[in-house]
Structure formats: C-alpha cells, structure tokens
Amino acid sequence: MSDELESGGEGLLSPPHTHQRTILHLDADCFYAQVEMVRQPELRDKPLGIKQKNLVVTCNYVARSQGVKKCMWLKEAMEVLPELVLVDGSDLTHYRHFSTQISGVAQSLTHRVERLSLDENFIDVTDLVDEYMNATGSSDIEGHVFGDKEPVSMDLVDPCGCGCRERLVAGSLVAKQLREQILKETGITVCAGIAHNKLLAKLVSGYHKPNQQTVVFPWQVHNVMNSLPAARSIPGIGSTTFSILKDLGISTVQELQDVPLKLLRTKFDSETCSRLKEVSNGIDETSVKKSGKAQSVGLEDAFTKVNSVAEVKVKYQILLERLLKLLKEDGRVPVSIRVSVRKFDLAKRFGHRETRQTSIPSSLFPDGVNNVGENTRSSLMKTVMGLFQKMVDTSKDFHLTLVGVAFNKLIERVREGKDISSFFGKRTREETTETLMSYYHREGRFMGERRGRGERGRGASNFYYDRRVDNHGEDVFLVGKPREYRQDPPIVQPLGVIGCFSVDEDRTFGHDRTLLKFIEPQYLTREGKTKVNIDLNRGWGKNSPYTAMGENSSLNLYQWILNNSETLVDSDDTPTRLDVDFICMRRCLIQIMKMPYNVKERWAMQAEYFRGTIYLVCYASPEDLEQRKSEPPYMKKIAMWGHKFEQIMTGGDPDEGVCANEEFRCVLKVKVDNFSCLLAPEVDCADPELFEEDFKDLSSFITVKCNREVDTADAFKVECFRKFMLNKWWAQNKLSGIPRVVVGFRTEEGQIYRLENYDTDELPTLAKGLWEPRVSLNILTSFLAFVKKMIMEAPEAVHRFERQSPIVIRHSIVPSVRGAAEGPIKVLPDWYREQLFSPLDQE
Ligand code: TTP
Ligand code: MG
C-alpha cells in the first residue's frame, strides 16, 4: 500500500497510471416495472407497482412521482396511492430473459461485460474508447458530469493530464450509443455511470435518473466519496463489515479515510484493511470480470410464519420443482446444493438467516438435467430436508419466515459417452515415457514440429480441449484451456533469499549451509553437449536410501521459521504477523502451474490460515502413502541414480555411497503477482565461480537432472519430453530464480555419455508450441486467489483442494478433530502454533 494511504490521505489525484481504463456501469430503470410495461404497453402511463408477497419491490417513475417508493409495504403504498396498478412479480422468468438480452447487447460490443445483478452490468470499454478517439478525435461530453445538474460543455479544467479526460469523454459517447442500442433492442431504458474504475462508475450511475448518464473525472473522487452519507454506502462494505467498523468508531467515509491502519488491523486481515482504505478513497483496481452463465440458480419463498415440518416440506418441494425447471433451461449440472432458512427470533423481533450446503453426487444426473427422474427428485428432497434438520431443531418450537434452495455450483457436463477414468486408465504410455533434447540442437527443430495439426493423435489434450469450461464456481476451481490464460503474465519474481538450512543423513535439521555442494567446473560447458562417461551404479551397495516422506520438508521449513521469525515479521506495528501471504513447498506451486498441460496428474493440497498467513501443503492420502511404500524396485533405482548423478556432478567419490536423505534448501521469498510466498526449494548445487556468501538470489545455483535418453526417432517421446519435462524444470527454476539446468542423459543401464546445459529462460523456446510460461503463471495466480478466497470464508478451518478430474479442483473443509495428531486433518503442527511469537504474546 502507498504511504499516501498509510497516512490516511485521500488520494485526491491517484497516480496517472490508474486512470487508464474507462468503465461503464449500467443500471436499468425501475427494472421489473419496465419489463411489465414493455410486455403490456397499456401500463406505460399508469402508476405501476410490482409486488412480491406484501411488498412493492419496485414501481415505475409515474408511481414514484406520486410518492410510492421501492420496497414499500403493499399496504402503505396503497394508502399513499390507491390508484396504484399492481402486477405480481414473483415469477422472475421474464425479468431473467430481459436481463440476458440487455447484457447481450453490451456483449455484442465487447466481451468485457460483468453481470452484477439482474439489471446491472459493468463494461470495460477501454479498448473501444481508444478506437473511438482514433477515429473521431475530440468531441463534446454526453450527459452529465458529477456535481452538475445540467449537461456541461468541455471547458472543464484538467488537473491530471494523463489523457483521462479525453478517454472519459469518449466513454460518455460509447455509453450513450450503448444505451440507445439497448433501448432499441429491448425497449428498456438504463442509466449509466462512466469512470476510470468500477467503484466510481457504480457510485455515479444513479446520480441522474431515469434514463440518463453521469461521468466522474478522477479529480472529483474526493467529492464523490465524501458526498456519501455513510461508509456503508460504499459498494463492497456490507452490513457485517460496517458493524465492525462502527465498533471501531468509524461511520463516515471521512472517518474510514482517516483511521490508522493499525486500528483496522485489530479487526481485519491486511488485505481487507488495504481494500477498505482504497475504497474509502475511491481507488478500485479490480477488473471487469467476464461473466459466463450465472454460477448458481436459486429460489426462495418468504412468509410470515411456518412452524411445522410438514409445511416446510411442502414449501421445499414446490421450490425444488420450480428449480429443476430453471436447471433444465440452464442445461448445466449442479455439483452442490444449498438450503436456507430465516429464523424469527421473537424476543428480538428479528429474522436471521442460516444456510447449509453439500455436494451432489454426479450419479444423480446420469442423463444431464433434461429428464430428472423420480429417484433423483426424492434423493434431492432427502438432502434438502437433511440440511434443514441440521439448521432447525424440530423437536422444539420453531418459527421460520423464509425457506430457500439453490444449486450453487453448476458445471457443463463432460462430453457424452466418455468417461474420464476410463480414459486415464487407457493412456498409460505417457506416464512412463521420458524423453530427449539434443535432437533440437542437432537439427534445429523437433520431430513433432514436422507434423501438421490434423495429424496429432487423439488423446488427452483433444478430449480436454473439446470441453466447455465455465467461470469459477464458489468452491470448485475449474481449470481452463491454455488459451484462457494467455493474458499478460503476472510478475513472478524471487524477492530474495532470506536463509537456508541443511538436512543430514538422519534427517536432522541444521541451521547452516554445510550440505550445499559445488558443481565441478568441467561439467558447465555452455556449448551444446559435453561427452562424459559416468557409471551411476558405482558404489551401489554403499548407498543409503531416502527414509522420509516429502511432507517432512514443510516441517523443516516451519522449524526454520521458528528460529527466524523476527526476520519475517510484518512491521513493528504487527509483530505477531509474518509478512508473507503463503508459506508452502515449491512442489505445491509447480503442481498448479502444470495443470493446463498435464491433464492426468491428480493431487490434493491442504491449507490452514494462521496469523495472517496461509500454509499450503501437498497432502498425501493414506492410499498414496501405501502406494509409495510399495513402489517397484525399479523406481527406487531411478531415484537413487538421480542422487548418484548429483554426487558425481559435485565432485563426490563415485565409489563411495550416496546418502539420499541429505539435502540443502534455501528459504526464499517470491512475489507471485500480488501475493508473497515463502518457499524452501532444494538446491542441488552452486557454481563455485559465481557463489557469494551473502547471496540474495539464487543466480549462482544450478539444478541437476538425470533423465533417460530420448529416442529422437520417436516423435511422441520427443514431444512428451518437451511438454512435460521441460515444463517441470522451467517451473522449478522460474519460481526460485535458478538460472540453469544441467541434464545427464542415462541409458536403461544407468550409464551417462553426454550432458546438456540449458538456461532456464531458454526452456520455453525449446518447447515452443507445447506450453507457454504465461499460461502457467496466470493459472498460478488465479488459483492462489481462489485458495485465499476459500480460506478467508472460513479462516478457522482446515481446507482441502483436490484435483478430481482434468478440470475440476474441488474445495472442501476438512472435518475438525480437536487434539488430533499431525497428518491428514492438520496442516500446522501444534508445536509450531504454540511457539511462533510465543515470547511476544506473553509480554
Ligand atoms: P434496483 O436496480 O435496485 O431497482 P429498480 O431497477 O427497480 O429501480 P431504479 O430505477 O432505482 O434502478 O433493483 C432491480 C430490480 O430488482 C427491481 O426492479 C426489483 C428487484 N428488487 C427486488 O426484488 N427486491 C428488492 O429489495 C429490490 C431493491 C429490488
Ligand atoms: Mg435498476
């Protein structure tokens, strides 16, 4: 966050680069009422109210001019205006239809349309505005400017100078044309706000109503924000946040702008604090997210009183039937169902809502959602009532004022007639294939590049690409196609090495660098390949195997953190918070980065939130552990060859045994877009020429790999090598800032005759056409954002993320077991929780 915000400044003129965008917010006028007026034009000039139960949810402007208001009780509205014509608005079908039409008009202009509610849309028209300005040059503003009651001419002073004035003026023209087009195609009038960010556009769109538009310039931000009656009026500050703010003595926008961050941090995590400060100053960098289909469909029924299980059952049954119809229209299959109730508390005269949700087995919809059979219906009803019973103790009296059901995660059905598991079962070839490289150096191209696209075999990727991928559901992360991650890559950059540790043959943690090895300089040739003659089987009987499980590495990292927490604390303000968003092993991040290209790899991770930081670990299920134990001897041999190769590369005596347990790790902070991550990558060795004791980066380090020789005559093997191996090596080195890889190509018998050296940055070029760095980096940042979102919704819980199919990563909360040992149901060991910051806490 900038110093300006730290000091409570109001960001009157935020830096010019933040005004580059032009955003529209559209809001339909008296939406439901207009839809009814379009459907029945004779209602147009009459005062019209739309009722749902005993409430007038909206009314047209004729009625508003005569004193009727939105959300008035029906009784009160009829008293104010006895001639009010009423239309029942409980069936939303037509409103949904018009809503889709309106967004559709905007979508025909640009795909950057985000549906905010049935009658609101954000549209990012930045590109259109540029085109517009190139085509037409400067012109007059359309509509209003914030603060003026009448349209103004363009003699406004421009204290900014970044070009935002011209862009927003052009934006006002785009908005006007779009509104006209919507009216022409749907008959609905809409209001628009035009600004350089979403927050401001939304705040001003209702400034002049109906059927008008308002521009706000960056230099008016202070006036806009301080014209709001309370901090609660800022979009994004809901009633819960506002009530916490009020506890801190903050009610007005000005008070939020002025409050010291330190005070906010006593109640909110640092991201929320930044966000609150930003929005209070009219700063909003969030992008317009392209909307796909709605992520959920749901229905609710409100009433004054229901107090018997039989009544509840009937209500849910009716809702479920209607919901199944909506589902049929939608066409997607639900993976989760949510049930809600509103309980009425007689003493407080207050209703409060509760919801419960659970996943739905896909076997309930064997033929999709078109023909839902009786068994499915009754099974769904059972689930609904089961969830209901969890919320309401029906053995006692209860009083409900609302029930609701929603299918809140919807996904496109996997292509008919194919079953992913059988697919995985069949294609075992790639799993065991390792591959080659030097062909490229010799021939300047790869075998695979000769083949045309049409010749590519059927396989994992084709099947996967055929499928439609939707937006993220609430707790399912859907892996998109690579092309969906081709936007500009986020910054992924090591921020610096902050420590290291060594783990010895007994897996004992040592706070030093004794086990860092140095590569023998003769192996560092930069020109093509180096001929060698290495026998990986020497000293075989003396080798000692790896005895730990991979997860053990996280524990060593936690140990290091305990020893070094003072170097990691946020600031003097928050001495009990580490200044890092994620702590994990590099392996977790690599698994995520590989996803768009590796459709087969299944994994699970678990995460826990502790004092401002998310801890993420790769989770091995009991079955995984069992499988690892029974690994075929051949796999163990390959792993040992890898260790042997490292021993030889770093000048060890080949006739001596190698100890697989020994490792050296750096503790490294890495920036991944807006997140900071603490990793502890294993470092194979360093270049003795470049190594400096007080290194801050890993630029002298080298990754050493032992890979089976690849048969260059087999295009499939070459392609696999480029697609999977190069991607993995690149991801490992990229995340830790290691610039080089030395690869020894071994025969089936463990002989190495040649080495090759690659620069990390050269690897994507060698794999051109098969994978792209930006795809891996973009999916990493979006997945971390998803993890964070899920965790912040339940920060006390242990969360699990599981890749269940090529595209579905399911989030779930691990049932808590108090006092349980480390392992499957925990991420952080008790000793870590107890000791981190403990001396400070006791003060
Ligand atoms: P709004 O945009 O808030 O209201 P509106 O479009 O009717 O009026 P305005 O001209 O002020 O924008 O809400 C959109 C629709 O949502 C509205 O037509 C009816 C429905 N609605 C409800 O069902 N319940 C509510 O409490 C509110 C506020 C709206
Ligand atoms: Mg509206």
Automatic annotation (TrEMBL):
UniProt GO molecular function: damaged DNA binding; DNA-directed DNA polymerase activity
UniProt-listed GO biological process terms: DNA repair; translesion synthesis
Domain of life: Eukaryota
Pfam families: IMS, IMS_C, IMS_HHH_1, RAI1
InterPro entries: DNA/RNA_pol_sf (IPR043502), DNA_pol_Y-fam_lit_finger_sf (IPR036775), DNA_pol_Y-fam_little_finger (IPR017961), IMS_HHH_1 (IPR053848), RAI1 (IPR013961), Rev_trsase/Diguanyl_cyclase (IPR043128), UmuC (IPR001126)
SUPFAM superfamilies the record matches: DNA/RNA polymerases, Lesion bypass DNA polymerase (Y-family), little finger domain
PROSITE patterns: UMUC
Keywords annotated in UniProt: DNA synthesis
Boundaries of every UmuC domain copy: 23-238
The family this protein is said to belong to: Belongs to the DNA polymerase type-Y family.
Name assigned to this protein: UmuC domain-containing protein
Organism: Petrolisthes cinctipes
